[in-house]
Each structure stands twice: as structure tokens, then as C-alpha cells.
Amino acid sequence: MKIIGATCFKLRIPFVEAFGHSASVRSCSDSVVVRLTADDGTVGYGEGLPRPYVTGETVETCVSHIAHCLWPAIADSDFQALEPGPDAVRTLDPVGRTLPDGDADDVVTWHAARAACELALLDVLLRRQTLSLGDLLRSRRAAVTYSGVITGGSIDNAVRLARVCVEYGLQAVKIKIDGEDACDRVAAVREAVGSSVSLRVDANCAYTPDEAVSTLAALAPYDIACAEQPIPRGDPAVLANVRSRSPIPIMADESLVSPDDAEALIAAKACDFFNLRVSKCGGLARTLEIARMADRAGLHLQLGCQVGESAILSAAGRHVAAHLDRVSFVEGSYGSMLLVEDVSEEPVAFGRGGNAPLLRGPGLGVDVREGALHVHAETTTALGEG
Ligand SMILES: [Mg+2]
Q: What's the 204 CA to ligand 1 centre distance in angstroms?
């Protein structure tokens, strides 16, 4: 099979409510959706969310990388049918090998661009074979349970959102923290949600190592399951030192982008959890590769998301969350709870209790509405026959 055309949509879907944390305040999705067209007319969609503070990519450089590096490789390739088997990483490997990593001098890695193209390729290949991604990533569970996330901002607003989470029956909630009010914020949220809800915190690189240790010590009485990325990405030995002094288990997020990062974090004993995100980790194959490394090292997993993911990445995340042998927390699938309009025919947002069904439809399992892409696209870039 040949891919004869691609279109990159630079999407800016407004949020229902702005979402903030220590590295960014965001009021729209800022994603890149790639549509690929095969020589028989089959169409598939993928998505990546470039974030300068995660992979170093911007929306603009991501589209440029797709146009100049990934698209020529895709257009040159002849794709064979996917062969579902017991080893999902092996099944995905031929698709991944068609996507060059490119020159990463100016970025951490081009993983959002890679994820968008890998997912679009898988969607088009699976649809052509009338297969679901679930046929490749066999599910280990009957449904996926999501947790809530409380954005930064005033403590009053955090408490309001915490009450919404409780009313929705969520059993796990993550709180964005930064600065010096972390303790008051977490105390207020703990009081609002009660003792039975699992709480965890995410600092998005906000602290120095010493600040992180003192902040986490102060948060320990509030029964915090883990603390995500308390310090900036850097030498894993520094994170390991924070971990050795922290009463709360540590989760690596911005420090964990690639399999090389995973290897270094494991070797340094830098964390207790990995936060996987399909866009950050460069698509499904690398996400699952990192998950395997975590399993072998005895680390726990969260399947997280980028803020602003549409139904396309939500669907990919649903399949990964269902497939992982062990997953402690799952985030994402916020759909129209976050976006004023999602791009799929069928809503993907989770329901009460955070529960969401498996997706069984062809490809990634969601049908994308082209009209929604055109309404929310800031620019579209046609490659090949578009
Ligand atoms: Mg995080």
C-alpha cells in the first residue's frame, strides 16, 4: 500500500475553561492532526500535541518536521498489511521503522510529529484491513477508569473542581501544584474530597531539589499517592536524590520522553512511577516499549495525556490503557468537558466514576468529522495529493 497524500491541520479548539500549571496556562488545544490518504482512497487520522516544555516542539516546527522529514519517508514507503500477534511492539515495528527520527539539535525529540504520523498510518492500515487497534493491542480489562485533574489557579477554584470530581464519582484526582501554597491547596482539596479518594500531585518542574523535598514532606500527611515531576528535567541522579529524601513516591513525566530516558531513570533509581503519554513518547510503539522497561524494573505506570487532546489521541490512549498489564492511574478522554467541540462523531469522554468502554470500531475506533477539523484549523498544509 502506498500513501499518496497527507494534510496537516494546525488545530486550535478553544477550551471550556482555561487550564493552567506551573509551565503553561492554556485556553485552546494547539494540536496537529495528520490525515493520510492511501492509494485506494482509505483515510486515517493521527494527532500529536507539540509542547515546547516537554519535547521542545512547537506547533509550527512540528508541522515543518512532518512536511520535510516524515512525509517524504512515508511517501517513499510501501506498507505491508499489519499482522496481529501476541507481541504488539513487534506488530507495530514495521510502521515505526518507516519514520526517521531526524535531526534533533533544536528539540528534545520530534515525538509529537512522530506520534501524529504513526497513529495516522496505523489508522489507515487498520481501516484498510477492517481491523480495530484493539485487535493489535489486546485488552487486559473490560473498561478503563480515568482520574480527574485539578488545574492550577486559586485554591477556591481547586476546591470547586474537587467537588465536581466527587459529584462525578471519580476515585482518583491529580492536583497541579507550584509555589508556596501547595500545602494549603492540597489540604483544601483533601478536605473537599474526603479520605477515600486517591490524591496525587503534579508540580510540572516547579521546584528546586531542596524546595521539592520540603514541599513533599509538608504534603505527606495528606496521603498523597505520588508526586509527579517535582523538579525540572535534567540529570536523573538529581531526581534520584530527591526521591531518596521524599516521603512521597516520585513519578517521572517531563524527565521521561524516550526509551533512552527510561533506561537512564531506571539505572539511577530516580523514580517509582513513569508517566506515559502517547504524544510525548512518540506514538504507540515507543510508549509500549517504555511500559515494558518499567515492568521489568518494577516501576508503576500512569497513562497520562497532554492537555487538549482530541478524540484521536483519546482513542489511542484508551487502547493503551486497556492493553497495559498493570496501570495505576489513567488520565485523558476529557472530550467536551475540556474542548468546546471534539472532532469525533461519537463522544469519547468518560462517564460517571471515570468509567469508559473499550473502543471496538475500525482503526483507532473513532470517526473523525472533517467539518470540525476545518472549523478549528488555523492552517492546513497539503502534502502530496493532500
Ligand atoms: Mg505531568
A: 5
How many angstroms separate the alpha carbon of residue 50 from the centre of ligand 1? 14
Centroid of ligand 1 to alpha carbon of 178 (angstroms): 12
Look at the block and give the residue holding cell 489507515. Answer: 124
pTM passes above 0.85: yes
Q: Say if residue 292 is in the same domain as residue 205.
A: yes
CA of 253 from ligand 1 middle (Å) equals: 5
Å from CA of 254 to ligand 1 middle: 7
Q: Are residues 165 and 61 in the same domain?
A: no
Q: Find the 385 Cα to ligand 1 centroid distance in Å.
A: 38
Domain range for residue 311?
143-357
DSSP label of 224? E
Indicate the residue type of 361: G
pLDDT in tens, 241-275: 999 999 999 999 999 999 999 999 999 999 999 99
* Nearest one of 366, 254, 338, 241 to 304, comparing CA atoms: 254
Return d(Cα 162, Cα 19) in angstroms, integer. Answer: 14
